[in-house]
Design a protein that fits this description.
This protein is mainly beta and 344 residues long. Helix content is 6%, strand content 40%. It is built from two helices and 24 strands. The strands form seven sheets. A six-stranded antiparallel beta sheet has the order 3-2-4-10-7-8, with no helix packed on it. Strands 1-12-5-9 form a four-stranded antiparallel beta sheet, with no helix packed on it. A four-stranded antiparallel beta sheet has the order 16-15-18-19, with no helix packed on it. β23, α1 and β24 form a beta-alpha-beta unit. The longest helix is centred in the last third of the chain and has 13 residues.
Length: 344
């Protein structure tokens, strides 16, 4: 039985995929793509004979394909998309959150990116190539365990502790519009000893940023102007700690010129202390026993890709109800949204 939260033909995983650096101007490219498999690496498809639901792996049920990808296979994806008029004058970034394993990308028949590695995201600025109407083409090959590469628990001959391969696009594909001068990333380090968040706002320009901090009730508890690309301490009055039983999160809103991003953080401190001649782990200065599960991160219907937000929430909350406070992911990197749900 399929997990609730996804219906074929809809846009799966239709939430902003990067919770710690969110913008309003974005487009989710998940959903039905044209698809075919070729065996000549130098050939281009004359036509696409079926459709696949991105971002579910080719081998999975929810992809609509459910075929084992062989080392000699070349997976071809294609879809069209349009750029909204309000994005005129903005930089347009194309994001692939994970493609397994070797990936080549064309936009309007022009090569724009090549990437190897099945677990990490990659992005490309397509501002100079994008038009009002566009055709995006992706070719993927995946040797799995027939070559030397990071593959986690995947095997072409699954048995024992090795599982079904997960080839092709297996995390969200999306577009984002950013200002010419924009924030590129954030570094946040909680310092509970001083009730401060150490924040660095990285940008492609040296400019000041306005930072706003909100509590759980959405009340602003701080506003401060700080320089980009330099670490600044934000002092929090009446600091509320994060813990596994009280996962309290603050919200952040950062504005730099025409760019605005939203994020979040929790105030917590990990450490060690001695007890009966042994070192024990601590959270916020108190001993904490890590009671957890070894989570393989596989789903019956979708392999390495989470079925839906609802399915991820169900797994995390049910483990908490059973008394666990730790999830140990086994040889897998999850989508960023999964870590946000754990924080939350």
């Amino acid at each position: 039985m399929l997990q609730t939260g996804f219906i074929r033909g809809e846009t799966p995983l239709n939430y902003y995929p990067r919770p710690q650096l969110r913008r309003n101007a974005w487009i989710n490219l998940n959903g039905l793509w044209d698809f075919t498999i070729l065996h000549d690496k130098n050939a281009r498809p004359a036509y696409y004979d079926r459709q696949i639901t991105v971002p579910y792996p080719v081998e999975s049920e929810l992809s609509g394909i459910r075929e084992t990808v062989k080392p000699e296979d070349y997976l071809w994806y294609q879809r069209t998309f349009e750029i909204p008029e309000e994005w005129n004058g903005k930089r347009v970034i194309l994001h692939f959150d994970a493609v397994d394993y070797a990936c080549t990308v064309w936009l309007n028949d022009r090569l724009i990116s090549e990437h190897k590695g099945g677990y990490l995201p990659f992005s490309v600025d397509i501002s100079d190539d994008v038009k009002e109407k566009n055709r995006l083409t992706v070719c993927v090959s995946d040797p799995t365990d027939s070559a030397f590469q990071q593959r986690g628990k995947q095997s072409l001959h699954p048995r024992g502790i090795f599982y079904t391969p997960c080839s092709g696009i297996w995390q969200t594909v999306w577009l984002e519009a950013v200002a010419e001068h924009h924030i590129t990333s954030l570094k946040m380090t909680p310092d509970t000893d001083t009730s401060s968040l150490l924040l660095t706002v990285y940008s492609n320009v040296e400019e000041n940023c306005t930072v706003e901090v909100y509590d759980r009730e959405k009340k602003m508890v701080m506003q401060k102007v700080i320089p980009a690309n330099r670490e600044t301490a934000l002092l929090l009055d009446d600091m509320h700690l994060w813990s596994t039983e009280d996962p309290y999160l603050y919200d952040l809103r950062i504005t730099m010129e025409e760019d605005t991003v939203e994020s979040y953080f929790g105030m917590r401190k990990y450490g060690l202390k001695s007890e009966n001649g042994r070192k024990v782990l601590t959270l916020n200065g108190e001993k904490i026993f890590h009671l957890g599960v070894l989570d393989q991160g596989y789903w019956p219907e979708s392999n390495l890709t989470p079925v839906s937000e609802e399915a991820m929430v169900f797994d995390i909350t049910e483990l908490k109800k059973l008394g666990f406070n730790t999830i140990r992911k086994h040889i897998k990197i999850e989508p960023l949204y999964w870590y946000y749900l754990c924080d939350k």
